[in-house]
């Protein structure tokens, strides 16, 4: 399409009128409103913070159940299978291996998973307040 421009600030002789379309005009107002509600502890902001705390507590309880059940099952398994309690590896009996090595790996894995999921909850909360 050839358009002749005659000078600075002049419009082309032919062509459609360009209009700027802005889709996110409400975004700024909503972002300020939700942040203000959280900061000023209004009912909505308080409900949002309580929801975050509830989500973090639920996550902590769900994650805590795993090591409690697995570590609590060790004495039961060893009582049911006494031969397993007598098994040795590198001159160390199995109960000491489970309690001294495997339990730390289990706790480390649960801690890593908790931190990762808790950060995701916080990011979801931040995204909610930024929308």
Describe the structure.
By secondary structure, the protein is mostly helical. It is built from four helices and two strands; from the N terminus they run αααββα. Strands 1-2 form a two-stranded antiparallel ribbon. Helix 1 (25-39) crosses helix 2 and helix 2 (43-80) runs antiparallel to helix 4 (94-130). It is elongated. The protein starts with 24 loop residues before the first helix and ends with a helix. The model has no long low-confidence stretch (mean pLDDT 77).
Keywords:
3% strand, 131 residues, mainly alpha, single chain, 73% helix, two-stranded antiparallel sheet
C-alpha Rg (nearest Å):
30 Å
Main beta sheet: strand number and arrangement? Answer: 2 strands, antiparallel
Kindly, what is the distance between the CA atoms of the first and last residues, rounded to a whole number of angstroms?
Answer: 41 Å
Proportion of residues in extended strands: under 5%
Mean of pLDDT:
77
Helix/strand/pairing category: mainly alpha
Overall geometry comes to elongated
Number of strand elements = 2
In the predicted model, the low-confidence regions spanning at least 5 consecutive residues are none
Secondary structure layout:
Layout: H1 25-39, H2 43-80, H3 82-86, E1 88-89, E2 92-93, H4 94-130
Antiparallel strand pairs: 1-2
How is this structure best summarized?
This protein has 131 residues and is mostly helical.
């Amino acid at each position: 399409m050839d358009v002749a421009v005659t000078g600075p600030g002049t419009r082309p002789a032919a062509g459609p009128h360009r209009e700027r379309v802005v889709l996110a005009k409400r975004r700024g107002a909503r972002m300020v409103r939700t942040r203000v509600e959280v900061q000023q502890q209004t009912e909505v902001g308080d409900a949002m913070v309580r929801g975050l705390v509830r989500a973090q507590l639920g996550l902590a309880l769900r994650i805590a159940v795993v090591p409690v059940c697995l570590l609590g099952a060790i004495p039961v398994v060893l009582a049911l299978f006494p031969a397993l309690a007598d098994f040795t590896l590198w001159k160390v009996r199995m109960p000491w291996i489970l309690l001294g090595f495997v339990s730390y790996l289990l706790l480390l894995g649960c801690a890593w998973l908790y931190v990762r999921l808790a950060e995701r909850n916080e990011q979801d909360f931040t995204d909610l307040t930024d929308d």
